[in-house]
Design goal:
The protein is of the alpha/beta class. Helix content is 26%, strand content 22%. It folds into 3 domains: 19-269, HUPs (Rossmann fold, 3-Layer(aba) Sandwich); 281-351 and 479-568, Ribosomal Protein L25, Chain P, CATH 2.40.240; 359-469, Ribosomal Protein L25, Chain P. Helix 7 crosses helix 8 and helix 11 packs across helix 12. Bound molecules: adenosine-5'-triphosphate and magnesium ion. Adenosine-5'-triphosphate (ATP) binds at residues 42-44, 46, 52-53, 55-56, 76, 239-240, 271-272, 279, 281.
Length: 569
Amino acid sequence: MAENTPSTTPTEETKGLNFVEQIVADDLKAGKNGGRLNTRFPPEPNGYLHIGHAKAICMDFGVAEKFGGTCNLRFDDTNPVKEDVEYVDSIREDIHWLGFDWGNREYYASDYFPQLYDLAIRLIKEGKAYVDDQTSEEIAAQKGTPTTPGTNSPYRDRSVEENLDLFQRMNAGEFPEGSHVLRAKIDMASSNMHFRDPIMYRIIHHPHHRTGNRWHVYPMYDFAHGQSDYFEGVTHSICTLEFVPHRPLYDYFVDELADETYRPRQIEFNRLNLTYTVMSKRKLLQLVKEGLVAGWDDPRMPTISGMRRRGFTPRSIRNFIDTIGYTKYEALNSVALLEYAVREDLNKIATRGMAVMDPVKVVITNYPEGQTEMVEMENNPENPEEGTHKMPFSREIYIERADFMENPPKKYFRLAPDGEVRLKGAYIIKCTGVKKDADGNIEEIYCTFDPETRSGLPGSMRKVKGTLHWVSAQHAVDATVRLYDRLFNVENPAAETERDFREMLNPDSLKVVDGVKVEPFIAENAGQGTKFQFQRIGYFTPDYDSTPDHLIFNRTISLKDSWEKEQKK
Ligand code: ATP
Ligand code: MG
């Protein structure tokens, strides 16, 4: 790993750089690759991007931006069985949403299939590659272990002519899948397992989403990646730590192409792993296919599209990634850190409004029947420039059922018989009685209001301990709210190798609440993408399913002192 450790001690201009940026700064300073910087982000279009990919995107595009280089988007489409244009489209959308752009540098590994094939032919001719007729099980059994050498394949010393003939026929579709592979002839005794005659090509008959039925052999990652970097002019090929042992093979194949004026180099950083989350695309696909979530963009998914639908902002994701940083050590990051970043950003930008999740009616008996007055509400106390909006107040309002107690304990500051509370932005009210149904449930609460305490009047300065959110009953609009919790109830599902990850799904990860009462201003502004703070409850955004006739909000995240916790008190 020595060559990937920064060579210089930090100077004034390089202080504060992460280790990858430091390496890039050193290379640029040394004039490597003619002073060029070109990175790439190489997703395989076999699933939607998740927050782990966001970390790689921020690195690949971020370092290019920082040092005036460019970043390519390269679809690593070497396995047609699992890939699809649906994924290509979603990947493009998600990168743009995060705030990055690849200009006209959109490439596909499949664009290089002809060059890769030519290189394979050349390596065969040079005696550096051979066709193996063994099954994958036989090949695996000959691999050896890290401490014992492998065994040479019986096909290892085939003639060049025979290898050329077989490889061409493999690609012509003459052989079934699994019957032959092309292997690099390197060293079955190498201490690096990846050097033990790695597979370069396998046969796949499934049509490719871009090249159709043109190819019947497809390159393996290790044979495709470095060369694709080289063909594209990539200088720094940044990836995650599991590729460290692949690096010598990356260099081995690049050596076949590169000259002293230019060669790409691989640098590895630690993956993002999050608590209460699975990040494997295979598992995420399984959740989607088996209907365990509503789709790739289900707001509980760790996908970028899920987070977008849930109401996370690109800035909150990028801030979170900045916070955790890049290292050379695997770690498990707390999802609470991500949630913190989301709250921080939404607190700055979300429009404040009132919504009552579990309404109980309050009748203000000394307020004139049929009268409505408008009170003024701040749109965002964090940003006075956002102004105010008007909210109707009338004789009948809703408050949260949990904000009233008939027999309160000491230090209960919300509404109780003979007690006073402030209705946020309006008046102080005093409870004078309740009406119950036959089962003893409270149906209505009766109060009087003090007209001198209207918000803005001197009387409003009067001290009361509790302030409640509320909505005018007659003006409120009904809405459905989807409350999300963590999708898994185990801190590190990936570590529980004995258990099926689906057993660890949190059965309460989605709760749907109907009959939520929202103030008219919220209903009128419930366009896609709007970010709200429902006062005292949390941050919400309209779901894609929301329509003017049936408003549906996703709870993005609760406030720190959340409504649910208060309910449990
Ligand atoms: P697969 O198992 O399908 O290869 P993958 O998550 O590695 O899954 P890719 O599409 O190959 O998916 O990933 C594209 C890029 O994103 C790679 O450079 C990879 O290293 C990076 N990446 C993937 N997962 C993470 C993660 N959790 N943290 C940081 N980077 C990641
Ligand atoms: Mg990968």
